[in-house]
């Protein structure tokens, strides 16, 4: 089945935001509306860039949705929606991926905000992905799939039949034998209030593999 959707983008002025929590609230509420594919809110520029399905929304309806949250949304006479181009590409699936890993790769691709449709293509051993090229590239899509690659098996010099596990390339390196939780401390710039801390904890704490997160906001 071929996906037929008409996407548009619009930039709305937004007044009344005071901190990063306001940005997060708008992105979550408006981004969760049916037909909204992507939203990026800027506190500094006081605007919201939205990519949406034209059959679900108009710039006016999106502005009203923002105003329903208690913010002022500015939609001038010169504000128009621009056409957003989509692209469909075949992303190869590594031969070493197990059926379970393949399904996980399909799930991860489908969860990406810039991905509109994912279909497995067994004849060409790949995944047909329809996406927004202005938000994500084919290379990044391939990295999502390749990140699911298992440990590669290569013969050792001692025995032709003996095999050694070699970790597949990864963006972030970690001890190959470690199965214990890892602790990492990060310095985060840009937080302006305790609400920012709560937002970060809620967002990062929901990520797969994250067991616990604690943020601290220190007033200098």
UniProtKB/TrEMBL annotation:
Q: Which residues form the HMA domain?
A: 8-74
**Gene3D superfamilies this protein is in?**
3.30.70.100
Q: Which InterPro entries match?
A: Heavy-metal-associated_CS, HMA_Cu_ion-bd, HMA_dom, HMA_dom_sf
- Entry keywords, A to Z: Copper, Copper transport, Ion transport, Metal-binding, Transport
Give start-end of the signal peptide. Answer: none
GO BP: any one term: copper ion transport
EC number of the protein: 3.6.3.4
**GO molecular function annotations of the record:** copper ion binding
- Keyword hit for S-adenosyl-L-methionine: no
Which NCBIfam families does the annotation name? copper ion binding protein (TIGR00003)
Query: What is this protein called in UniProt?
Result: Copper-transporting ATPase 1
Q: Which organism is it from?
A: Salmo salar (Atlantic salmon)
């Amino acid at each position: 089945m071929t996906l037929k959707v008409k996407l548009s983008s619009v930039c709305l002025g937004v007044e009344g935001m005071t901190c990063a929590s306001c940005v997060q609230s708008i992105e979550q509420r408006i981004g969760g509306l049916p037909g909204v594919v992507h939203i990026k809110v800027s506190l500094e520029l006081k605007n919201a860039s939205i990519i949406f399905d034209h059959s679900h929304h108009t710039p006016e309806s999106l502005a009203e949705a923002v105003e329903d949250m208690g913010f002022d949304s500015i939609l001038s006479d010169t504000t128009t929606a621009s056409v957003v181009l989509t692209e469909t590409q075949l992303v190869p699936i590594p031969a070493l991926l197990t059926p379970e890993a393949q399904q996980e790769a399909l799930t991860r691709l489908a969860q990406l905000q810039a991905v509109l449709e994912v279909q497995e293509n067994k004849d060409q051993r790949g995944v047909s992905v329809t996406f927004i090229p202005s938000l994500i590239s084919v290379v990044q899509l391939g990295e999502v799939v390749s990140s699911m690659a298992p440990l590669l098996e290569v013969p050792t010099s001692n025995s032709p039949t003996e095999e050694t596990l070699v970790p597949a390339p990864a963006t972030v390196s970690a001890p190959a034998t470690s199965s214990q939780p890892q602790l990492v401390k990060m310095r985060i710039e840009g937080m302006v209030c305790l609400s920012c801390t709560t937002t970060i904890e809620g967002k990062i704490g929901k990520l797969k593999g994250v067991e616990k997160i604690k943020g601290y906001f220190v007033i200098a």
